[in-house]
Task: inverse folding
C-alpha cells in the first residue's frame, strides 16, 4: 500500500459492548530505500556475448538465487530492477569497454544504482591466414573482360568479433611486355579494419599480392582509310611541299599513342629505293618535304603484341600555281619588203618571266590560251602599235597572260618609204665589265624604257631623225653589292693621303653621302650600311653613271665641276650614235661589285680562318654572363661579321668596347632577332701581337646553357670576313676554349649562297666546317633526283667548290645539299639558259 491513501474505520467498544465507528484516511509511507550491489567487473575476449548473464552476471532480488557473478538488490517492500548499458558500438574489432548500469526502484520510487564495467579484449587478432589470393590468368582476345568477375577475387574469413576484412585492387597496364599483348599487374589488397591505420600503414593489418593478367591477341591495328590524296603546291619557288600524310590507326589492345608507326616513301612511285628517291621515318609523316609528282607512302603499324598491319596509298603534289608572265616592253618590228612580217609570241616574253616549277625553256608561249597559237602575221595594214596578249602555259597546264604591244614599222619604205634609226650603247664599269639590268630611260620626241643585257648593252629602235633626245641610266638595288669593311679602310687611307685613289670614278664611289667630297662622314654612312643599321644610303643611289665620252678637267677632283650623268642628243643624225656610260657602284672602291650574272667574282680568299677566341663556360639561369672576344691583330687590317646568339637563352645587356674598338663599330638594331653586327679596320697591320680582348658582351642568362652552344659567327647579315695586307680575305670564326685548354668550334657549320646566283657559266658554292670532316655536296633537280655529287675530306674552316653550268643537264632551279657526319644544310640556285 505504499504510496496509496487507505481508508481505515476505527470502532471503539465500552464495557457493555457498545461501540461507535469513525473513518480516517491513512497514507502509507516507506522511508527506507533499496540497497543494490552490482555484479563484479569482468573481462571478456572478442567474440564472447557480453549480454550473457552466465558470463557477466546479473542483479538478483532473492539472496537465495544469487550466483557467484550476481549482484543483489534488497528492499523492505521489494524492488524493481532495470538495466541500461553504454553503446555497444564502443566495442569494435573485439576490443572496448561497456558500462552496464543496474537501477533498483522500490514502490515508493526510491532509486539506487550501481555500474558494472565489462572490458572486451581482442586476444585473437587476424594474422592473414586463410586469405586466398586469385591466381595468375591468361585471357585470349583484346575484348576479353578483365574484371574480377572473370579473373577472380581474394577469398577470406567472414567478419566476426575479432576482425573485419575488406579487399580492393589497383591495375598497372603494360602495353610493351615481351610475352603478352597486354599485361595487367593487378595488386590486390586485403585490409583488416580492426588493425589497419590509414595514418600509419606500416603498422600492419594489410596483406597484398600481385596477380598477373596476360591478354593475348593476334589481330593487328586497323587503319581508318588508305585512300589516295592530292595536294596543291602554290609556292613561288616550287620548293618541296610538306603535306600532312597522317593516318588514323587504332587497336583493341594497344592505346593509339602507343602504336608504333613506321613509313617509307617511294618518290615518283617507281619502285626504286635508290638514294635521293626514298625517305624513311617513324611516327606520323606530316612535316617532310616532297617535290611535284606522284609518290607512294607505305605505313606499317605495330601494336603492343607485335601484330603488324599495313597501309599504302599514292599522294600527288600538283603544281597549282600559274606562271608569272612578264611581257617585254613592246616589240618594234621592221616590216619586210614583201609587206608582211611574222612575229613569234616567244619574242614578246621578258626573260624575267618565271614559273614556280617549270623552267623557262619548258614554258609554252602563245598569243592565246591555245598553246599552238605561236605566231602572228602582220602586214602594212598593221603599221603602228598592236596590243597583244602573251599567254604562258607551264608543264602542268596552268596558264596566265600579260599584255604588251607589237609596233610595226616601215623604216625601209616598204609601205611608206620613211626610214628611222636606232640609238644604242653600253654601260660598263671602269674595268669594262658590263652592268646588267640597269634601267635606261629615253626622253624627247619619243620616250621609252629598257634594261641592259648581260654585257651591259641596250638599244632604242625606230627613232625619227632630227629631234632631240636624252638618255638617262639608273640602278638603285643591292646597296651592299661590293661594299665591305675593306672599302672603308681604302677610303680612310685616301682621306689621310697615305694611299690616294688613282681614279676619279673611285672618288665618286667613295662619296657615299653625295656631298661632292670624300670625308669621314662617307665612311660613317657606309659602315651603317655594312652593319645593317640602315638599309639604304639616304642621299645616294646604289649606282651612279658618267658619260663615257666625258673627260674630267681635274681627275683628282671630279667634283670640281658637274660631270654629266645623262647624255643629250641634239638633232639626231641619220647615223646611229653610240651612247656609252661608266657605271660606278657607290661605296665599292676596290671594284668587287658583281655587275652581271656572267661577271667573275673578284675575291681573293684564303682557306685559313681568322679566329676570335672565347673562354667556354656553362652558366645557370639568372646569371650575368660576360663574354670576352680575344683576337691577335698581327698582320690584320680589318674584319666584319655577324654574331648570332640564342635570344631565348641569352638576353643582351651591355657592349664594352676596348682600346681597339668603339660602339660605332657595332650594329645593335637587330638584337630582337639575336644578331649583332660589327665592322672594324686599322690603317696599318701590326707585325707582331698577342691575343687581346677586342670587345666584351654581357648577357643575362634566361636559362642554363653553354656558350659554345649559343654563340656563332656567321654571314647571315654582315658577311664574315677579314682582311690582310694585300687584300687577302679570310673567313672569320669563333673558337671556344674549355677549362682543359682544348679548343672547340661550337655550332659554326654554314652553307653559303652560291655566287653568282642565278648563273650561266659557272658558280661557286661556299661552306664552312667547324671541324675537319668528310663532306658531300649533292645537287638535286626539283624532282629530288641527285644530279651531281662532290665528296671529300675537308679541313676545318672555309672552302669553295666550283660548279660548271655545263655539268648540269638543263637550265632551271636546282637544290644543293651539304652533308657532314654532324650537319646538313640545303640551298637553292638557278642556272639560266
Result:
Amino acid at each position: 500500500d505504499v504510496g496509496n491513501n487507505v481508508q481505515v474505520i476505527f470502532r471503539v467498544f465500552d464495557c457493555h459492548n457498545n461501540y461507535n465507528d469513525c473513518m480516517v484516511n491513512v497514507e502509507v509511507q516507506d522511508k527506507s530505500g533499496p540497497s543494490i550491489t552490482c555484479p563484479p567487473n569482468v573481462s571478456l575476449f572478442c567474440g564472447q556475448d557480453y549480454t550473457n548473464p552466465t558470463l557477466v552476471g546479473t542483479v538478483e532480488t532473492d539472496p537465495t538465487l544469487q550466483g557467484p557473478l550476481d549482484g543483489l538488490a534488497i528492499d523492505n517492500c521489494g524492488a524493481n530492477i532495470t538495466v541500461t548499458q553504454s553503446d555497444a558500438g564502443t566495442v569494435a574489432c573485439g576490443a572496448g569497454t561497456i558500462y552496464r548500469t543496474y537501477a533498483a526502484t522500490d514502490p515508493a520510487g526510491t532509486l539506487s544504482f550501481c555500474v558494472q564495467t565489462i572490458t572486451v579484449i581482442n586476444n585473437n587478432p587476424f594474422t592473414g591466414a586463410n586469405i586466398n589470393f586469385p591466381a595468375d590468368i591468361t585471357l585470349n582476345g583484346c575484348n576479353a573482360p578483365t574484371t574480377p568477375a572473370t579473373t577472380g577475387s581474394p577469398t577470406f574469413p567472414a567478419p566476426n568479433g575479432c576482425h573485419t576484412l575488406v579487399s580492393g585492387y589497383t591495375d598497372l597496364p603494360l602495353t610493351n611486355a615481351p610475352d603478352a599483348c597486354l599485361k595487367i599487374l593487378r595488386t590486390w589488397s586485403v585490409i583488416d579494419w580492426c588493425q589497419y591505420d590509414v595514418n600509419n600503414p606500416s603498422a600492419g593489418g594489410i596483406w597484398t599480392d600481385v596477380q598477373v593478367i596476360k591478354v593475348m591477341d593476334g589481330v593487328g591495328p586497323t587503319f581508318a582509310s588508305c585512300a589516295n590524296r592530292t595536294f596543291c603546291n602554290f609556292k613561288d619557288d616550287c620548293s618541296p611541299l610538306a603535306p600532312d600524310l597522317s593516318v588514323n590507326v587504332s587497336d583493341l589492345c594497344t592505346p593509339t599513342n602507343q602504336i608504333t608507326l613506321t613509313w617509307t616513301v617511294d618518290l615518283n612511285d617507281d619502285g626504286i629505293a635508290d638514294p635521293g628517291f626514298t625517305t624513311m621515318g617513324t611516327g606520323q609523316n606530316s612535316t617532310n618535304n616532297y617535290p611535284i609528282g606522284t609518290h607512294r607512302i607505305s605505313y606499317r603499324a605495330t601494336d603492343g603484341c607485335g601484330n603488324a598491319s599495313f597501309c599504302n596509298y599514292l599522294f600527288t603534289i600538283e603544281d597549282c600555281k600559274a606562271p608569272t608572265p612578264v611581257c617585254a616592253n613592246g616589240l618594234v618590228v621592221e616590216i619586210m619588203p614583201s609587206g608582211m612580217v611574222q612575229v613569234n609570241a616567244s619574242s614578246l616574253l621578258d626573260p624575267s618571266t618565271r614559273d614556280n616549277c617549270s623552267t623557262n625553256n619548258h614554258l609554252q608561249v602563245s598569243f592565246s590560251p591555245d598553246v599552238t597559237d605561236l605566231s602572228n602575221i602582220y602586214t602594212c595594214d598593221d603599221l603602228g602599235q598592236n596590243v597583244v596578249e602573251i599567254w604562258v602555259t607551264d608543264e602542268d597546264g596552268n596558264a596566265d597572260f600579260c599584255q604588251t604591244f607589237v609596233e610595226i614599222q616601215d623604216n625601209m619604205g616598204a609601205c611608206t618609204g620613211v626610214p628611222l634609226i636606232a640609238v644604242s650603247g653600253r654601260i660598263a664599269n671602269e674595268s669594262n665589265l658590263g652592268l646588267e639590268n640597269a634601267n635606261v630611260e629615253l626622253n624627247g620626241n619619243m620616250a621609252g624604257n629598257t634594261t641592259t643585257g648581260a654585257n651591259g648593252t641596250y638599244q632604242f629602235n625606230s627613232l625619227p631623225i632630227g629631234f632631240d633626245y636624252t638618255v638617262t641610266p639608273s640602278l638603285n638595288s643591292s646597296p651592299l653589292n661590293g661594299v665591305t669593311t675593306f672599302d672603308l679602310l681604302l677610303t680612310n687611307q685616301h682621306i689621310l693621303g697615305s694611299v690616294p685613289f688613282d681614279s676619279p670614278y673611285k672618288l665618286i664611289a667613295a662619296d657615299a653621302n653625295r656631298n661632292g667630297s670624300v670625308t669621314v662622314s662617307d665612311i660613317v654612312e657606309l659602315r651603317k650600311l655594312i652593319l645593317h643599321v640602315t638599309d639604304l644610303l639616304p642621299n645616294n643611289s646604289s649606282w651612279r653613271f658618267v658619260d663615257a665620252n666625258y673627260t674630267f678637267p681635274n681627275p683628282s677632283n671630279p667634283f670640281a665641276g658637274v660631270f654629266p650623268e645623262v647624255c643629250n642628243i641634239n638633232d639626231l643624225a641619220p647615223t646611229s650614235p653610240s651612247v656609252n656610260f661608266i657605271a660606278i657602284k657607290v661605296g665599292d672602291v676596290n671594284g668587287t661589285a658583281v655587275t652581271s650574272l656572267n661577271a667573275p667574282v673578284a675575291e681573293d680568299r684564303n682557306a685559313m680562318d681568322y679566329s676570335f677566341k672565347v673562354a667556354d663556360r656553362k652558366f645557370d639561369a639568372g646569371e650575368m654572363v660576360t663574354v670576352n672576344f680575344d683576337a691577335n691583330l698581327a698582320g690584320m687590317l680589318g674584319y666584319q661579321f655577324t654574331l648570332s646568339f640564342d635570344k631565348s637563352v641569352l638576353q643582351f645587356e651591355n657592349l664594352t668596347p676596348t682600346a681597339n674598338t668603339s660602339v660605332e663599330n657595332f650594329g645593335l638594331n637587330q638584337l630582337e632577332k639575336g644578331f649583332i653586327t660589327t665592322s672594324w679596320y686599322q690603317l696599318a697591320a701590326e707585325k707582331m701581337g698577342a691575343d687581346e680582348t677586342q670587345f666584351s658582351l654581357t648577357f643575362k642568362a634566361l636559362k642554363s646553357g653553354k656558350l659554345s652552344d649559343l654563340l656563332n659567327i656567321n654571314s647571315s647579315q654582315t658577311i664574315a670576313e677579314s682582311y690582310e695586307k694585300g687584300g687577302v680575305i679570310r673567313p672569320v670564326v669563333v673558337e671556344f676554349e674549355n677549362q682543359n685548354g682544348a679548343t672547340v668550334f661550337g655550332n659554326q657549320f654554314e652553307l653559303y649562297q652560291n655566287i653568282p646566283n642565278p648563273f650561266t657559266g659557272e658558280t661557286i658554292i661556299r661552306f664552312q666546317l667547324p671541324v675537319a670532316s668528310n663532306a658531300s655536296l649533292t645537287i638535286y633537280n626539283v624532282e629530288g633526283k641527285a644530279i651531281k655529287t662532290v665528296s671529300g675530306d675537308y679541313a676545318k674552316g672555309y672552302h669553295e667548290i666550283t660548279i660548271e653550268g655545263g655539268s648540269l643537264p638543263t637550265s632551271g632551279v636546282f637544290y644543293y645539299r651539304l652533308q657532314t657526319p654532324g650537319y646538313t644544310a640545303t640551298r637553292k640556285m638557278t642556272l639560266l639558259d
User: Anything to note?
Assistant: The longest helix spans residues 485-496.
